[in-house]
Amino acid sequence: MRNYYLSVEKGAKCPSLGAIVIPTHYLEFYKDSENKLRIKIKDTDGEEYDLRVTCRYLRDVLDKEKSLEGLNKELQDNGLAHIRVGLAKPYYQQNNNCFLMCNGVFLY
């Protein structure tokens, strides 16, 4: 598993927000070593994506959880999730790379 970055040329025109719909059993929330909320998303090919959660609402709600184990167990039900993904602004110190982040999760 790795963090995902996209190299963007200066002045490039590309969308910065998108979405995927995925079965909830492919998702797992966790907190990293700095206690920041993150989400692991596994695709149907088995590739795992490790994204920072930037949605303030999700962070406010889930940061109160001492353990995300209960939530992750509930996600194993065969529901669907709409995941909003976006690109951060380029980091000029890192060759104009943008990182992929999770802007929201909607369960249904």
Keywords:
OB fold (Dihydrolipoamide Acetyltransferase, E2P), single chain, 7-stranded mixed sheet, mainly beta
Question: Could you please describe the fold and organization of this structure?
Answer:
This protein has 108 residues and is mainly beta. The protein has a single domain, classed as OB fold (Dihydrolipoamide Acetyltransferase, E2P), CATH 2.40.50. The protein is 13% helix and 43% strand. It contains 2 helices and 7 strands, in the order βββββααββ. It is globular. 10% of the residues are buried. Mean pLDDT is 80; it is low at 1-6.
CATH topology: OB fold (Dihydrolipoamide Acetyltransferase, E2P)
Question: What is the number of domains?
Answer: 1
Q: What kind of sheet is the major sheet? A: 7 strands, mixed
The number of helical segments is 2
Number of strands: 7
Mean pLDDT: 80
